[in-house]
Amino acid sequence: MNEQISRLMDGEIDATEMDAVCAALRGDAAMATWNCYHTIGDALRSETAATRNIGRAISQRLAHEPVIVAAPRRRSASGPASWAWAAAASLAAMTVVGWTAYSMVDAAPAGFVKAREAGTMSAAQMRPATVLPPDYLLAHQEYAPTNALQGVGPYLRDVAASTPLRPAVAE
Amino acid sequence: MGDREVDQELVLRAQRGDKRAFELLVVKYQRKLGRLLSRLVRDPAEVEDVTQEAFIKAYRALPSFRGDSAFYTWLYRIAINTAKNYLVAMGRRAPTSTGFDHEDAESFEDAEQLRDSATPEAELLGKQIAATVNRAMEQLPDDLRTAITLREIEGLSYEEIAGVMNCPIGTVRSRIFRARESIAAELRPLLGTDENRRW
């Protein structure tokens, strides 16, 4: 068993041997060997100069600690991998978004036709029932729905109003 | 199964309620961690207290360890935070010029400073252990001494050692084990860890 303990501390043991070695290390004799081998390594690396073995003290404190029963979270767990779940979720999300977008595109032409009809009203439909005076139209042209110069109306009005007031120049 | 995988396996067993698996990790890293903390907490008795506290905190936090980093890296962060909190509680500031926030601090070499801060008892025991191990090493055959030196000091894997020594991996495995057993035979009386005594 000591030979397996030696390989365990070097990380050179087979996974199939772990159960047997760990079971043996529950015994004090094997634990003493584990401790002794590590002390040898620490001494060769000059790590025994300052610190003494406090493993026993920690072991006594651990005895008063509750046993951990929480399920460990391990990245390499057996069963479906996390990336598989992520891929499935992504595919489902893409399907929903794609289906919704396709449905909207299919229903769009009807709305577009109505909008186009509304935007192509004939001039006769827009003509007012009564003939308004030009001054009224000029004063309210900024409210006209199809005025391409919306926003600059006030400036145009100023120019139009200033023209008649310009005094005639005597030749 | 590499060194990191062994640690992960021991952590997994500890997470399932195997306290002995965590004790194996304590024995493995106690001196390395204590040596690092000696740079932050100078008093040797306080270093031991903080080291113990760090291991206990790590044990309590085991359910949150997911293996994204190596166990020692995770333990190292807990220990540094424990030491800083300890110094704050004691009204002292943690030294900032030693670069403790950097991973490079894991491999520092400052044995002379540590010897200065060790208690006389710890220093004496450390010297006795070192002398015993060195004496046992000198008595080893060359192939055994080379194998364990390449492993423990140079950190080479069995495969790398086999390449260096031009021998099969099985031979490397045997040489390292025999070297350890020879040194352990000299060291066990000093450690008080005879077969019939608790470790």
Task: Kindly describe this structure.
The complex is a heterodimer of chains A (171) and B (199). Chain A is mainly alpha-helical and 171 residues long. Chain A has helices at 2-9, 18-24, 28-44, 55-62, 82-119, 123-126, 134-139, 153-165. Chain A is rod-shaped. Helix content of chain B is 69%, strand content 0%. Chain B is built from 9 helices and no strands. Chain B has helices at residues 3-15, 19-37, 44-60, 71-89, 111-117, 120-139, 142-152, 158-165, 169-191. Mean pLDDT of chain B is 83; it is low at 101-116 and 194-198. At the A-B interface, helix 1, helix 3 and helix 4 of A face helix 1, helix 2, helix 3, helix 5 and helix 6 of B.
List the keywords.
heterodimer; A: 171 residues; mainly alpha; B: 199 residues; 69% helix; disordered C terminus
Average pLDDT over all residues of chain A: 72
Shape of chain A: rod-shaped
Termini separation of chain A (Å)?
Answer: 128 Å
How much of the sequence lies in strands of chain B comes to under 5%
How are helices and strands ordered from N to C of chain A? HHHHHHHH
How many strands, which pairing sense, and closed or not: the largest β-sheet of chain B? none
Helix % of chain B is 55-70%
How would you spell out the order of helices and strands of chain B?
A: HHHHHHHHH
Low-confidence stretches of chain A: none
Quaternary structure state of the chains depicted: heterodimer
Any idea what the radius of gyration of chain B is?
Answer: 19 Å
Spans of chain B of at least 5 consecutive residues whose pLDDT stays below 50 are: 101-116, 194-198
